[in-house]
Amino acid sequence: MTMHARLVDLTVVTAPDPDTAPPVPTASAPAAATSAAPASAADLVDAADLADLAGLRVLIVGTGLIGTSVGMALRRHGTDVLLYDRDPAQTAVAARRGAGRAWPFPDPRQAGVIGPRQAGTADDPAAGDPAAGTGGAVASVGQAVDHVVIAVPPRDVGQTLVAWQLLLPRATFSDTASVKVEPLTDAERLGADMSRICGAHPVAGRERGGPEWAVADLFVNRPWVVTPSAVTSRLAQRHASLMAVGCGAWVAHLDPRTHDFALGLLSHLPHIVASAFAARLATMPEDLARLAGPGLMDFTRIAGANADLWTEIVGANASPLADLLADVVADLGRVRDALGAGAVQGSGTDPVVESLFRMGNTGRCRLEAAKALPAPRAAVDDHLSGVNHLSGVNGRLSA
User: Fold this and answer.
1) Across all residues in the chain, what is the average pLDDT?
2) Model pTM score
């Protein structure tokens, strides 16, 4: 019988959901050496790549948990980091935490500016704004920005990319969204220069969001999936990979559709299933709920994730998730039917039920084996061909 979709030969991205990642060990409390995973970015790439980071100027758009953590990590290498968020207070928090310095000019969307302008004139939308009169300065700084990391929700990636590309005509771009196809398709539809954007997804996170929860070690030894398109320039790919290196992550190259299937199975689907089960507990009397053991707490922990954010993520990855969820529903339906028949007939263990548990054992063992693999060790330029992607995410597991 069909049990569920599987990953075939995709060992590099078999990572758990960002919200389920264990705390990252700090320098004062190193983790036990239980695998061959490298201890730092220096073990992953050659020294020249790390040296290049010190010469870059990077703008981070979106200073939540991910954006602020990226800035804090890059600053360790001497990278000049500029910060922008639609909420100035959030930018200020990120700057105080050491993620960089605030971008001092108007947001191109808020100010109505998409390029250098003559400030203070009648057709200047920012006239009278305290930041007005900086058109020349914007152009000057814009020429010096090497790379922009767009750390905003998936639905905002396209419009954010277009606005900042027009303001920063020489910069390359990457994003951090956990869904790739829809945001990049939206960006292309809006007229973005797709040669200057390299999709990316750092597979890491914490249970709480916001710059106050950011840590420089958030991405250490974590996968950072890079999803260049056929037209992505080598420079954009290199800069996107350098962001991963600077944050201590290891780089996995995937095409956008394979990424969305893989993360749909490894991250998005678990959130749906955990939430569906946790919803059963919403009206359970507390004197009964207190009987729950640590296994249930582990299983339902990701059900406490931000509902608004995860509604958006799931919606942006709807197509692969619908297929994956259909497989799970079919499996549960067969188990339900088998249990119902067993209750009526008074029969013993049903092979359908046993098969599900055994397939679960197999899947768990596969995940543990994949997580024990050492991270790839290579220079950034080793993966800039645009075709060196992992593949093979297809097929079904039959019993």
Assistant:
1) 78
2) 0.73
